Amino acid sequence: MTLASTPPGRALKTAKAGATQPPRQRDPEVTRARILEAAKKEFAKLGLAGARVEAIATRAKANKRMIYHYFGSKEELFQAVLEDAYADIRSAELKLNLDHLSPEDAIVALTTHTWNYYLKNPEFMTLVNSENLHKARHVKKSERFKELHHGFISMLQRIIDRGVEAGVFRAGVDARQLHITMAAVGYYYLTNRFTSGVIFDIDFMSKEALKNRLDFNIETVLRLLRP
C-alpha cells in the first residue's frame, strides 16, 4: 500500500503515535566526550585564560549549564582535558606491545611512536605548554593523572634491563632521564619549528626534513643506550 492510498484514519493514528513518543534521551557519555573534544580544541588554541565556556558550549552543541553539570567549573574542565590527553598517549603506547619486541626494536618503536603522536596530535603539545605555564597546578590535584603514569617508567626500565642482559645496552641508564630525552628531541623540534626554520633556513615540516629528524632522533637515543 502506497502513502497516497493509506486510509485517513490509519494516517491519523500513525501521526498521533509519533507525536506521543517520548523524546530520545541524551547519552551522558557521548555528551561528555563531545564537550571534552570541544574544550580540547579551545584550550589548545587559546589557553586556559583565553578559552570561553560559551565558545566551548557552541562548539560542543551543548549549553553552559550542561558543562558546569558535568565538570563543575572551567578549571575542572581544563583538568579533565589534560587527563584525557595524557590517557590517550599512554593508552596508545600500551598498544605497541613493547615487551614483546627486542630491546632495540622496542626503543625504535617507542621513539617513532612518540614522534608520530606529536605530529598527529599538535593539541597535545600546546596543552602541555599551557599547563606548564600554570606550574602543573591542575595535574598536581589529579589522582587519575598520577595513576596514568604508574606503569610507564617501569615499562621503559624493563626494556633497558632486557637490553643490558642481552649485551646491547649499557648498564646505569636512568629510565626517567631516557624518557625525557626521547620526548624532548621531538618536542623541541616541533614547538620551535617556526623560529628555527628562520634561523636555519629550512622547512622543518617538509617530508624530507621530518624523515631526517626522526632518523636523527632514533640514532641519538640508541647511542645513549649502546655500550
Automatic annotation (TrEMBL):
Pfam families: TetR_C_29, TetR_N
Disordered, as annotated region: 1-28
Superkingdom of origin: Bacteria
UniProt key word DNA-binding: yes
InterPro entries for this protein: Homeodomain-like_sf, HTH-type_TetR-like_transc_reg, HTH_TetR, NicS_C, Tet_transcr_reg_TetR-rel_C_sf
Key words, A-Z: DNA-binding
DNA-binding region: 52-71
Record's keyword annotation contains Heme: no
Record-linked SUPFAM superfamilies: Homeodomain-like, Tetracyclin repressor-like, C-terminal domain
Span of domain HTH tetR-type: 29-89
Entry-linked PANTHER family: HTH-TYPE TRANSCRIPTIONAL REPRESSOR SCO4008 (PTHR30328:SF54), TRANSCRIPTIONAL REPRESSOR (PTHR30328)
Name by which UniProt lists this protein: TetR/AcrR family transcriptional regulator
Organism expressing this protein natively: Paraburkholderia phytofirmans
